[in-house]
Structures are given as C-alpha cells and as structure tokens.
Amino acid sequence: MPSKGSSGDTVSRPGVASSFGDIIAAERGRWILWLPVLMGLGIGTYFALPVEPPLWIGVGTVAGLAVALWLTRRCDGPWIVCIGLTTVAISVWSAEIRTRVVAAPVLIDEIWPVSIQGRVVAIEGLQRGSRVTLDSLVIPRLATAAHPAQARISIPTPPPHLKPGDRIRVSAMLSPPPGPAAPGAHDFHRQFFFDGLGAVGFAVGTATVIAPRPADAGGSFALWLEILRQRINERILAVQPGASSVIAAAFMTGDRGPIPEDILAAMRDSGLAHLLAIYGESDALGIRCDNYGCIYRANGHVVAFVRDIAALSDDCGRADVVVSTVPVRRRCPSAKAVVDRFDLWRNGAHAIWLGEGPEDDIRIESANASRGDRPWVVRPDRITRGFSTGG
C-alpha cells in the first residue's frame, strides 16, 4: 500500500518483484557462478524423481523455455529467470540421456563357479590379491545379449605382471551389484549402473592370461589412462618401499587396496569409519544366537533371524517379526511381519522399526521401495533369463 511522506507526497514501497529484480541486478557480476548450482539442482531433481520421465517431456520443456528466452530477451529480470529454468531443464534432460546411453544388461541372480573370459580394463590392489574389472565378457551360461558390459572380480592370486589390456580366463562366482545397505543409504547399484558394471564376484581358482596385450596395440583413452595409473603405482612402490608409499599411491591414483590393515584401523579409530561385529551372545543388547540363527528382543517385541529352516518351527511361534535367509512364505501365519529370501531378492535390504511397546505397530521399509521405479532398480518384471536390461 502507498504511504505519505512528511510533504504529503505518495511514496511507493518496493514490492516483491522489484526486490527480486534488485537482487538479480546486484548479482550481475556473478551470474556465471550460478550455472553450476543450477546444473546441480537439475541433476539432483532428476535423481529425486520417483519414476523415469518420458524423453519427450524434457524435449518439450527445453523447447518451451527456449521460446520464452526469445520472448523475454529485452527484459533483464524475466530473461535471467528463464535462463535459470532452462539450465535446470537441460540438466534434467542431460541426466536422462546419460542414463539411456549407459543402460546395459545387469545380472539378476547368482551364477555359481563358471569359467569367464574378459579383457582387463582396470586393476586395483588388495591386501590379498587384486580386484580386476573385465569387459568383452564371455560367460557360457548366459546368452550373448545378456552379458554385462563389465564385471568386477576379486582374484586372490592374480597372474604375475598382469596389466590392462590382457585377456584372461578365470573361474569365478558372479552376483548382481549390491544395492543400498538400508533404505535411504548410498545406492551402490546406481553407482555401478553408471560405471557400466553389471556383475561383481570373486575367483575360486587361479586366473590365466590367454592373450597378453601387444606392446603396439591401440586402445581407448580410458585403457591408456589405466595403464598410466598402474605405472605410477608401480613407480611409487618401487622408489619408496613401506606403508608410506602405499598411502602416497592411494593419494596419487586412488588405489587404496594395499593399505596395511593396522593403518586402516587407525583411520577408523580416528573417526573416519566405525565397524561393529557381533557374534555369539550379547544379552546386554538383547541378542542371543546359535547355529540356527538369532533372537532379538526390544520394546516388548521379538525378532527372529533365521538361517536354517529347522529353526522355523520354534521361531515362528514366538517371534513378532521373522527375517529369514531361507524361504518362509506361509509357514509363519502368526508372525506380524515376515521378510524372507524372496523379499530380500525382490526388494533389497529392509529396515525394521519396532514400536515403543508390545502393542505398538511394527513398520518395515524396503530399500527398493524408497528408490522408485528407475532404470538402475532391478525389479522382477524386468527379469528375462537371469538378467535385467537396466531400463
């Protein structure tokens, strides 16, 4: 509302629009610095969506904002707003395109020891052995179209002088990439999806180099970079033996595998990580375990963790919640909630909230339920002959 000054003249108070325009004008020298912020906002918006948007929505939004940019080209305030919205929209659209570009088959279920062939594209040192990433895979038990683009395998005894570009054969167990450890936790499956990794596993025998990389062979820039990374590691370890060289190599190339366990323990003790392992009995925590599983009591509720089918006859009658690594289905009709092997397979990790008292509700949330219907979330309706297309 206008107000009158001492001379009787009407003085207009600045409105929200004019104040916003003043803020934009004051930031004129820093407009370019807002572009990364807006791009991050767009990418974050894409990953926060519960479902994968159709591609035409992104195309239409960007086209509409391009028209708005042209129409507002002579008005600084609206034009800058349109630039911001366009940047966000292009970022969302770019993230969606990237998802479609990297989509590749993903292993759904475990494959027991099978002879695998592949080309080494990355090598990471471990305390015992190495972890190698293979592409150009040949897996006898899968159709060619079902082969993951890449697989990461831990090899306890790798061949000597193994280098990127070598083609190896190894007998290994393969499994799908791990999902979140709990609802809302870091999504390793999504990370592996964008890294092109469709399977992880470990070797059960020695690996053999069946075709060394020729010295004059070409290759992609990524392969050349990995070879350079390995040479830097080898040079650091050769010039400066000891634990300090391993840490230096980790800072230089990111290869943290060979760091001695005592140093890793010191880093954990300093607050970088916290590990807790419980085995046997811990009455203070309300947990009792035997060869068949564990029983946990809290807030008047009983949770049974079953790892042997023989435990179901007793645990199903006394537990409010049954968590089982073996199929349960209808064997526990009296339990308030059941999470068995099939639930874990379909929906990933589960979180259980126990009410304050025995009469309070018990709530269970799965990791996949909080991840939405996205290409990197493996669901049963996407399964075809043991693999997912990732889209």
- Largest sheet data: 5 strands, mixed, barrel
Which CATH class of the largest domain applies here?
A: Mainly Beta
**Corresponding CATH architecture of the largest domain:** Beta Barrel
- Would you list the SSEs in sequence order as H and E? EEHHHHEEEEEHEEHHHEEEHEEHEEEE
Secondary-structure-based class equals alpha+beta
Terminal residue distance: 55 Å
Strand content: 15-25%
Q: How many domains comprise the coordinates?
A: 4
Q: Mean of residue pLDDT?
A: 78
Total number of beta strands = 18
CATH topology of the largest domain: OB fold (Dihydrolipoamide Acetyltransferase, E2P)
Shape call: globular
Helix count, DSSP H or I runs of 4 or more residues: 10
Radius of gyration equals 28 Å
What strand order characterises the main sheet?
Answer: 4-5-6-8-7
**Which percent range fits the helix content?**
25-40%
Low-confidence stretches: 1-13, 272-284, 381-391
Description:
There is one protein chain. This protein is an alpha+beta fold and 391 residues long. The chain has four domains: 16-102; 104-214, OB fold (Dihydrolipoamide Acetyltransferase, E2P) (Beta Barrel); 219-274, no CATH class; 283-360, no CATH class. The chain contains ten helices and 18 strands. A hairpin with a 5-residue loop joins strand 1 (3-4) and strand 2 (10-11). Helix 2 (34-48) packs across helix 4 (76-102). The radius of gyration is 28 Å and the shape is globular.
